[in-house]
Prior knowledge:
Elements: H1 4-21, E1 24-26, E2 29-31, H2 37-43, E3 46-52, H3 57-75, E4 80-86, H4 91-96, E5 104-109, E6 112-115, H5 122-133, E7 138-139, H6 143-152, E8 155-160, H7 167-178, E9 182-186, H8 189-195, E10 201-206, E11 212-215, H9 221-231, E12 236-238, H10 244-249, E13 254-260, H11 266-280, E14 286-291, H12 298-303, E15 313-318, E16 324-327, H13 335-346, E17 368-370, H14 376-380, E18 386-392, H15 397-412, E19 419-425, E20 441-445, E21 452-455, H16 461-469
Parallel strand pairs: 2-4, 3-4, 7-9, 8-9, 12-14, 13-14, 17-19, 18-19
Antiparallel strand pairs: 1-2, 3-5, 5-6, 8-10, 10-11, 13-15, 15-16, 18-20, 20-21
Amino acid sequence: xxxxxxxxxxxxxxxxxxxxxxxxxxxxxxxxxxxxxxxxxxxxxxxxxxxxxxxxxxxxxxxxxxxxxxxxxxxxxxxxxxxxxxxxxxxxxxxxxxxxxxxxxxxxxxxxxxxxxxxxxxxxxxxxxxxxxxxxxxxxxxxxxxxxxxxxxxxxxxxxxxxxxxxxxxxxxxxxxxxxxxxxxxxxxxxxxxxxxxxxxxxxxxxxxxxxxxxxxxxxxxxxxxxxxxxxxxxxxxxxxxxxxxxxxxxxxxxxxxxxxxxxxxxxxxxxxxxxxxxxxxxxxxxxxxxxxxxxxxxxxxxxxxxxxxxxxxxxxxxxxxxxxxxxxxxxxxxxxxxxxxxxxxxxxxxxxxxxxxxxxxxxxxxxxxxxxxxxxxxxxxxxxxxxxxxxxxxxxxxxxxxxxxxxxxxxxxxxxxxxxxxxxxxxxxxxxxxxxxxxxxxxxxxxxxxxxxxxxxxxxxxxxxxxxxxxxxxxxxxxxxxxxxxxxxxxxxx
Length: 495
């Protein structure tokens, strides 16, 4: 028999466990902390988990849609739960999930973690979840059910198979399992007749462009996935929060970006001009419009070295070639000019466009010398001198913190004839042979050999000085102590 003390301790432990496992609910969304995380994941078969920051604009925009999605699932009596984590408080959970930006959304299916790849509107969230938790494709036995199914969604993929157990049908279902779109399948003669489709064909129905596209080639997983990826997007895609992931994660890695202003009426004026060349190069080049009136798109303009008074204009970017950019000599947004620009790119006749600032007249006046694209190699690769360069981004918090220290460093060594302390705004100047991915990056180019040694120690005047005075030996093995705002500093390839 347990003693009174034993019974009391047992009761306290049980009460503590209950308290720890308590889960608050806000707008139908579970509030997850490190104390209740395990119980939320273990007690629910399906959990969509959002990591957010209260100050993040994208998180604020998602919040009402997320709550609306939770309400829809509740009304459907679904067992799927939506949950959220304040990543600025629950830093341990954020680190475990490798959260690098906000919002980050993860999906737990029976305890197994996978990335959320859907859009951020309530209907899209619900459809994605139903897809991942239900059968891969909805059975469509009648014309009425097929019509209702197609009408309900902006994009649906329907497989027409007289024998749903055939090899081709199995491949289609394999694609459906991993696909993010809504899939249906039918073997009904009346549905075949209604849509005038032959056996073993796949049709993508959509509420834009040509509305119906038929896939009639050999049915393989890779080819069907490519077909869906290409034809599920409009001929001309508007870049926004909902389309960004589809644009950058798609099979097409060469993009024509057309920079426009909705306020100036550019979309109405130019969209038809973009359509014709988009048809010609569909599947080869993705045509994307960007509304430059959006504050969120200012960083994109900066990445291409553009200002709002340059609008309208266009650029091509090749994602798989280290974000290579191409500039048209003629910025006119006309079908003829766009076609000429894209054709020259596809034929390999365009030279890569590298950003560079004009060289300031007083670039070498101060202790910290200013480098741009046109003078970088001459200064940094001077074999008579050691050259220490800071590659920075003006908006980067860490770069701003380093600035006064770096000025002190320049002042300290201003009288050293064989040492140059320099800096370069790497967001406004590009180098074909040097790739900078993080800000700030500090590199010492040694005299005689031009060997590049990156500094990875603590950014103090004392440590930077030791690094220079030991010819790049000091601090190379030290780890950078990351600060909380590191998650907010994007890498160059994430812009």
